[in-house]
Amino acid sequence: IGANLAEGCGRRSDAEFGRFLLIAMGSASELTYHLLLARDLNYLNEADFGRLDDRLEEVRKMPTSLKMKVKPAAIAS
């Protein structure tokens, strides 16, 4: 997620940055899947899963909030 945001910041246009914001949001969804899979395969117990999932939700809000502050034209729908 952070690497996607960093890469987007290094791009030359708001539109490209917006695209990487969306990619970061997609990466958060991928991580949700990986946490669920780790729990289901008993690599994570329920308490650890819950703690990590809560932290991920906090991180997920960050690019979403930033997306709202970036020019709407910069975000491809």
How would you characterize the overall build of this protein?
The protein is mainly α and 77 residues long. Helices cover 77% and strands 0% of the residues. The protein contains three helices and no strands. It has helices spanning 2-9, 14-40, 46-69. Helix 1 runs antiparallel to helix 2 (14-40) and helix 2 runs antiparallel to helix 3 (46-69). The radius of gyration is 14 Å and the shape is elongated. The mean pLDDT is 88.
Low-pLDDT runs = none
**C-alpha geometry:** elongated
How many helices does DSSP assign?
Answer: 3
Give the overall average pLDDT: 88
* Helicity range: over 70%
The largest sheet, given as strand count, sense and whether it forms a barrel, is: none
| Terminal residue distance | 19 Å
- Beta-strand fraction estimate: under 5%
Radius of gyration from the alpha-carbon trace, in angstroms: 14 Å
Write the H/E string, N to C.
HHH
Give a count of the beta strands, DSSP E runs of length 2 or more. Answer: 0
Given helix and strand content, the structural type is mainly alpha
